[in-house]
Amino acid sequence: MSEPEISIEDASQYDSGTTIAMIAExxxxxxxxxxxxxxxxxxxxxYLRQRRHESRLAxxxxxQALVAAGITTVLxxxxxxxxxxxxxxxxxxLIAVEIYLVAVVTPFAIVAxxxxxxxxxxxxxxYPLIGKYLIEEE
Length: 138
Prior knowledge:
The protein is mainly α. 74% of the residues lie in helices and 0% in strands.
């Protein structure tokens, strides 16, 4: 069997606005799962560079992902403070991590998944609760 060939037309199906939207949603995933504070900082830098992008799709996905990542980062900070105060062997750390994973990561991961899927399909997505305040309408 031969492997399928990918043409340049297939690879260039995304414009720069869609690419920025997908990167923003991917950085939100990075902030949720791998590097909570670092992902937010990278997303904030991307926002500063691309906040006036010509694509409304890019601006909306970027703005919503930044605000959601900011919320999750602020909610992650008590865990960092517990580690700095009492180390990794603290019972309070165990409780804080469990609450963070169940109450923060799970719902935001669902939202991030829908946001990434919509960005990949070049569609607008409005985040629950925060989206109506951040979306630019036509």
